[in-house]
Amino acid sequence: MKLAIMQPYLFPYIGYFQLIQAADVFVLYDDVNFRKQSWLNRNRILLNGKEHLFTIPCKGISSYKRINEVQLDNDKKPFVKFKKLIEQAYRKAPNYINTKELIDKILDKNPTTISELGKNSIMEICEFLDIKTTILTSSEDFSDSAELHKEHRIIDICKKMEATEYINAQGGQELYSKSDFLKHQIELNFLIPNSNRAYNQINSSEFIPWLSIIDVLMHNEKDKVIELTNSFQLK
Questions:
Q1: Closest CA to 17 of 168, 163, 137, 131
Q2: pLDDT value at residue 37
Q3: Torsions phi, psi of 139, nearest 5?
Q4: Contact 16, 6 (CB under 8 A)
């Protein structure tokens, strides 16, 4: 059984969904410390042919709080502002209507924490893309191991789920060792996206990669997005 773990990023890039697709079970790591300047409450879209960073404001952001403890601003204005930004950026995109409806569905669930909003964005997009991976939440399903740190907790979760393989994003090669996992009879592999990921972007003379999944959905039919989601290797 293949297992992957990642924090509940907000409208994450397509590599995140490739990681979910590659796993049998995916764990949303929501009870670890919030990291400032991460992808938990912000991401990048295409605006007027250039990369644009958007942020969803939160209350009392602190690296001493766990992700699922960070509250969203009670005011609805940030969501209204975000919807207007999406309209400004993508109203001429080929799949604007369907993607806008999906974004509205996610935001209209009235989440109260940034973790809940991130989880909603991931779950709804997985459903839209017909990704069948089982998705669990660390605070709900593995709270007994919350005091363990780094790879010790990951290995503990793998053992609880009887996982034989742990899959991590490409960047994890600097953090985790295959030999450390093999000591526990767990194979560690890293997800390497294939290079043929470019697609046509409106108002852009040069392809800008690794934007939010919003950009991928806006510019591609569902079948093409599914194809891109399956375009990876495990090494």
A1: 131
A2: 86
A3: -70, -25
A4: yes
By DSSP bridging, strand 2-6 and strand 71-72 are unpaired
CA–CA distance, 215 with 19 (Å, rounded to integer):
18
pLDDT digits (tens, 9 = 90+) for 38-63: 999 999 999 999 999 999 999 989 99
Gap between the Cα atoms of 207 and 184, Å rounded: 42
DSSP symbol at 31: S
Decide: 109 and 118 in contact? Cβ < 8 Å.
Answer: no
Query: Angle, to 10 degrees, between the axis of helix 14-22 and the axis of helix 222-229?
Result: 70
Which residues, in sequence order, are CB contacts of 92 under 8 Å at separation 6+? Answer: 202, 203
> Computed from CA positions of residues 12, 13, 17, 19, in that sequence, does the dihedral angle turn out positive or negative?
negative
The 8-class DSSP code of residue 74 comes to S
Q: Is the pTM for the entire model greater than 0.85?
A: yes
Tokens, residue 213: 């999944």
What 3-state class would DSSP assign to 168?
Answer: strand
Structure tokens that stand for 233 in this block: 């290797």
Contacts 24+ apart (CB under 8 A), 169-175: 169/6, 169/15, 169/16, 169/19, 170/15, 175/150, 175/151
pLDDT for the residue 34: 96
**Helix extents (H) in 108-192:** 114-128, 138-141, 151-160, 178-182
The pLDDT of residue 133: 98
